[in-house]
Amino acid sequence: MNHASPSQPHPAEWPETQELLGAEERGLPAGRHEFHKEHLMAQIHDDLRTTNGTPAAPGRQRNPFLRRNVLLPAMACAVAAAVVGGFALAGGDGGDGKTPLATGPALTTQVGTADAKAAPELLNRISLAAADTSGPTVGDGQFIYIASKVANTYPKTVDDKTTVVSEELHSRQVWQSPGGKDGWLIEPGQTGDKGITLAGEHPISAAYDSLVKLPTDPDALLKKIYQDVDENRDRELARDQAAFVAIGDLLTESYPPAKLAPALYRAAAKIPGVAAVDDAVDALGRHGVAVARLNEADGQREEWIFDKKTLAFLGERTVQAQPPKDGPIKRGTVLFTSAITERAIVDGNKELPSDSRAG
Q1: Separation between Cα atoms, residue 206 and residue 208, nearest integer Å
Q2: Helix (H, G, I), strand (E, B) or coil at 42
Q3: What are 211-225's pLDDT values in tens digits?
Q4: Which of 67, 20, 41 is nearest to 340 (CA)?
């Protein structure tokens, strides 16, 4: 396998004539543990919906085409077993309207130096900046709209030869009702042009109405997260790492209320092993500072990226910060990258912010 150099073009610059993603199976990127992150925060949501000591109904089954590293509906047990074992998703157009994504050499980066001593101060500054930013107010019938640019990296085997490839950078649009029972997803290569529904009987776990009920005291919030980590995490994923990942998921494809966002950052500052990285790059190529934590088990580092001046949240990425014990992934490989391009409140499902403003 030819390992791409750090100077390779950004995925957004790859020509469309590059190799298309075929119908080969691709499992979850190593170390992503998506089901356990989802189940963790789904449990928080279920606890909030429990009344008179009666447990809430189990979460609805997650659609397998939803983004693999983000907080969305909890999976049923049968699906969970498949995911933990390497749930495979087929690429290409199999008659279902999906558009295959171009792939290219694995995206790589310079691994920035992590400074644990600088993390508390950085997170305190980020928390203060978040407190000065007004959060969303979502009315009945409205939807939270989140647009982002994303790309995954994964091993690909053709004719018994395995290489590591990255998807072309592509758009992702999500609509979520405040109660979490309705919504829509559009992502090329996964859903087709028209997208898929997120509607279901039970709310998604990161629903706005659930987030407003979470504790805004950092200690109480972190205690709640750890409680659910202890109950639901994969025992191969360290407790502190699971808590860090759970908080990170609430910063990405959700819209934390104004009072919750600062608490999430202050809670993260209390997790052992959290570090500051002075330079990190989001999916759009924007340089920023990062709050990060290394998963000692697989050498992968989760990074939340913030604007260096405003400290606004830009996106996240997962970087192979240490050489793995085995496998084709190399140090410096960017396993996942994202950039938030817009968050807004719109007046209807599948409606764009420009439509709401025009109305």
Answers
A1: 6
A2: helix
A3: 999 999 999 999 999
A4: 67
